[in-house]
Amino acid sequence: MPPILAIVGPTATGKSELGMALAEALGGEIVNADALQVYRGLDIGTAKPSPADRERVPHHLIDILEPQEVYSAGDFARRAQEVITDIQGRGRMPVVVGGSGLYLRALFAGISPIPPGDPGVRQELRERLAAEGLASLREELARLDPPTAARLSAGDTQRILRALEVARVTGRPLSAWISEQPFGTQAIAAVRVGLTLPRAILYDRIAGRVARMLDAGWLEEVGELLRLGLSPRLPAFQAIGYRQLVRHLEGDGSLEQAVAEIVKETRRFAKRQETWFRKEPDVTWFSAQELKRQIPGVLEHAKHRGLGRAYG
């Protein structure tokens, strides 16, 4: 099976723009590797491609779940493999685009199956969450499983509880289960391109993007989802940005405070993303500054690695 192309890197570096350009140049279709764009109704805050972009280039694994549903790295890997097989079967090139490092690792290298949970332990943890707050549980996770605690954002309630549950039920940290990767060698060959920016420029971009999302109606989008009866405790609402805006709409803090926290947490998330991808094997990095000027060089790199020949 010929290799696929993967565009990785921190948020706000232009991965979607580059993915679109390369897909058009190489006869490709985009496979979404973002953990939130799968949810219907979460549009502005997840930076989903516009209808016009989706008309230009076919996109897969977008708007496939309701906000109530849970999505995992294993779910993504299974769905993505099916989509990639279909795209290649039609003679097209899959272009995987996204910044979720664990999802991409699950696709390319495989991850250990995580043991089933325990409803009793899960309920106990939720009771503790209500009584003690998330910060206390996150401190416990940092003691039991430092790698997982470092990887997760401070407000990721769902994954913090799940990691604690795994550690409590199995006696082993989640990071140990993930590191085993029993599938061994890379299941899908990939040419991996990473986008990077100087941190000061990236941080300015993040602040600007948050402002543009709000101008585009992000707060109204969150309010409408709540008016539809969706619980603010749903997994989808625990994402950076959505949880801060939910709290603001519930009367907990001003919009200015919510925006400041969104920017701060997104910057921290971007730093973790870059750290993750820098440790991943065989990523060729390109500057995201003046991205349009970089496209010919990235395209030449992809063709040099065999993508042009593989897909005609």
Structural features, described:
The structure is a single chain. The chain is of the alpha/beta class. It folds into two domains: 4-111 and 181-209 and 276-310, Rossmann fold, CATH 3.40.50.300; 119-178, Histone, subunit A (Orthogonal Bundle), CATH 1.10.20. The chain has helices at residues 15-26, 51-56, 73-89, 101-108, 119-132, 134-144, 146-151, 157-170, 174-180, 199-215, 218-227, 242-249, 255-279, 291-304, 307-310; strands spanning 4-8, 28-32, 59-60, 93-97, 190-196, 283-287. It has a six-stranded parallel sheet with strand order 3-2-4-1-5-6, sandwiched between helices. Helix 2 links the parallel strand 2 and strand 3 (59-60). It is globular, with a radius of gyration of 20 Å.
Offer a concise description of the structure.
With 312 residues, the protein is of the alpha/beta class. It is built from 15 helices and six strands.
Keywords:
312 residues, alpha/beta, Rossmann fold, Histone, subunit A, 6-stranded parallel β-sheet, 9% strand
Terminal residue distance: 14 Å
Weakly predicted, low-confidence segments: none
Sequence of secondary-structure elements:
EHEHEHEHHHHHHEHHHHEHH
CATH class of the largest domain: Alpha Beta
Biggest β-sheet strands, sense, barrel: 6 strands, parallel
Instruction: State the helix count.
Output: 15
CATH architecture of the largest domain: 3-Layer(aba) Sandwich
Overall strand count: 6
List the helices and strands and how they pair.
Layout: E1 4-8, H1 15-26, E2 28-32, H2 51-56, E3 59-60, H3 73-89, E4 93-97, H4 101-108, H5 119-132, H6 134-144, H7 146-151, H8 157-170, H9 174-180, E5 190-196, H10 199-215, H11 218-227, H12 242-249, H13 255-279, E6 283-287, H14 291-304, H15 307-310
Parallel strand pairs: 1-4, 1-5, 2-3, 2-4, 5-6
Helix pairs in contact: 1-14, 3-4, 5-6, 5-8, 6-8, 10-13, 11-12, 12-13
